[in-house]
Amino acid sequence: MASQPKTALITGANKGIGFEVARQLGKAGFTILLGARNLALGEQAAATLRAEQIDVRALELDITRPETVAAAAATIPSLDVLVNNAGIADPADGPPTTTQIGALERTLRTNFIGAVAVTQAMLPMLRKSAAARIVNVSSGLGSLTLNGDLAWQHVGVKFLAYSASKAALNMFTVQLAYELRDTGIKVNSADPGYTKTDLNHNRGTQTVEQGAAEAIRLALLPDDGPTGTFSANEGPNPW
Ligand code: NAP
Question: The whole model's pTM is what?
Answer without folding.
Answer: 0.98
